[in-house]
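Field reference: sequence -> structure
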Amino acid sequence: MNKLTLDTFLYVTDFELSSYKILNSLKNYNKEFNHNRLYPGLSELIELNLQLKEIDENNLNDVFIENLSSRKSKDDRLMVETIEVTDDYIQQVVDLIEWAKPLVKDTIDEGKILYEFVKKNIYIEEIGIADASREEGYVLIPDNRQAMIQVLRYEISMTSSGKKSQRKLNTRVIQSVDKVYVNQAPNEVIMDLFEQFADMPSSSTFICTTDLDFPFSETILPVVKRKLMSRMAA
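Structure field:
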């Protein structure tokens, strides 16, 4: 699927063709949502929507300059510089953006409906040591399509974007365990983890449950991560 980016709106050689490309891209995003694949489509559209909201005819020249200066490839810069940014061109870009904004929002809303449904149908339980640090630990997540439980190690880090700092949940799969075994003996699985990874003997452990048979990497995992971060912040 072709990613819909700000470049699609800024650097246009044929405005009618660009409108068809935008419609086709949004159709593909909707198709992903209809197949229960949330990411990266939803996050891409949310980022694009924020960028489009900040653009109008008064600041579009600044947006062009900022976008151009961020390009590292010489060929990429040359391609962009061939476009003549006239008043008429700027107005057409603004018109294209204004036309597309409600269409992008409608597609995002479809993704959010799916997100909320998945979020509502995933349950997280914290087990094990009550006074364990929550900054790092383990999370067990069902991958119902594979009839497995994916065991992930997580760590919370701080990231900075401009003047803002925010907490980020980093994860990596350390093993896959048969779902039946985990359901029958969850405590044994946790004790095995503590024995295998002695560097984290007093870590929080979370077990997720869901009946959803949705894609793991594109939907289940990213929703769990967001829900887990919200729980830790509460």
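Note: The chain has a mean pLDDT of 84.
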